[in-house]
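User: Teach me something about this protein's shape.
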Amino acid sequence: MATLSMVSGPVATSSLPLSTRRRASSVSFPAPKKGGIGHGGLRIECIRIGGVEIPNHKRVEYSLQYIHGIGRNRSRQILLDLSFDNKVTKDLSEEEVITLRKEVTKYMIEGDLKRFNRVAIERMKEIRCYKGIRHKLGLPIAQQLEEVNPTKEPLKSELLNGKWELLYTTSTSILQPQRPKFLRPYGTIYQAINTDTLRAQNMETLPYFNQVTANLVPLNSRKVAVRFDYFKIFSLIQIKAPGSGKGELEITYLDEELRVSRGDKGNLFVLKMVDPLYRVPL
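Assistant: First, the predicted structure itself:
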């Protein structure tokens, strides 16, 4: 609801009853403020859009951003779609305010958006995806972690050694999204690294239990070149890796429990430590 103030005007007290005249002589009405949207004897001192009272003294582009779900880009898009000038909010006409309200209802904002996000987060927690785990633990996501990496030279740290469980990745070579769902890896995936022997191993579980081992060549204190040497199909059939089996891996965050890595193709890997004593086969 908009805040309303009455615009006072002269009243002939002689035309009022005596009792009313006495009260009128002791009552004063505030003078109308400048600005706002007026209609008859009423003046609106603020505007309510999308269930939110937006500032009257700012331009519409900035006032709309007080609504949860409307940022700078969306605010500008709304003005563009309506062919509105970016005027001060209080200078909007009644017709423009009504049009603006209708336009804003096209977007998911305020309570609806908050409910949607809450349900989405709960769903991520239930399926235990990377973001869901981070939300459940109250921890920041990958980029925020990388900014505060406590281990500046991970290849020189004992924290890197051991067997890690893959929590999240963007790698299509691991996720295999082009395959039918029942042929995609759906079991736990592990990666092990030993810095003393410069060996690494990737291990799938269901459905194929495939494995691959690799030699690591340090490029700096946080990045290695990866040279795959052997693949194991169903953890039984060993095949020598082709010469093209290579890549790079950079450790961008490392602590006692969590590791974030990025591949040379831009893929993100997030892993948690499960066995610090695991040794990769030579």
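Now, about its shape. The helical segments are 18-25, 60-63, 72-82, 94-104, 110-127, 130-137, 142-147, 172-175. The chain has two domains: 4-104, 142-275. If you'd like, I can walk through any region in more detail.
User: That's plenty for now, thanks!
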